[in-house]
Amino acid sequence: MCKILESLGYKTLQAESPSDAVRIAKLTTIDLLLVDVILPMMSGLELAHAVSTIRPSTRVLYMSGFTTEEVLGDRQGRHNLMGFLDKPFTPESLGGKVRELLDTEFPDPLPSNLNMDGQETILVVDDDAALRRTVTRLLSRLGYVVMEAGDPDEAMRIVLQKEVDLIVMDVVLPRLNGLALAHTISALRPSIRMLYISGYSRAELAGQFGLPDPGVAFLQKPFNPEGIGALIRSMLDRAEAEAAVADFH
What we know:
By secondary structure, the chain is an alpha/beta fold. The protein has helices at residues 2-7, 18-27, 44-54, 68-72, 91-102, 129-141, 152-161, 178-188, 202-208, 225-248; strands at 32-36, 59-64, 82-86, 121-125, 145-149, 166-170, 193-198, 218-220. The protein folds into two domains: 2-102, 3-Layer(aba) Sandwich (Rossmann fold), CATH 3.40.50; 121-248, Rossmann fold (3-Layer(aba) Sandwich), CATH 3.40.50.
């Protein structure tokens, strides 16, 4: 399969086991996961859930000799980032299904009850381009001025050149983790608020990266529009109130 996909111009990565696939997902952005439903130690469905927790924008293409209904049940049609390929399949059907999934827009429904009064400047830092664009679109539609950075170097350039009120920061980034980057930025721009996001839980991050105290703003991926919109608004309102108190004194 790798040879077929590479002949179509795709870059492929191979995992020898489900745990290896999870390890790869933690290290690099994956646009599409091609997974057999029946795997040793962990089913393809369980593996897809684990990868999607780390990389919410990853499309999943299941393969199986069983029918779609037998494998997916009520999961089929639940969202448009998931596809199914019956075995045996041809190179043409594989290529067509992969292209179909990759061309699918990542959904970003915007609830009507969200506050649309944002006007501050927010920087979104995440190496997952699809998720970064989704968060950017959401925050832009809430009225904020939004900028994007795909790596720590780009984030630093923006912070040094622009006025930023809040940063939505992925904890796992290439070369420098989000916590270290936030520490560097805070030393230069102490007024910038930080909202950390990650596919890991807060407890996992505390063990692996030393996530600061429970008072630090954090959202675990995947998160919903209401959650991130409300949290960002409360953080910015609190910052404004604190600034007003400081000016009064």
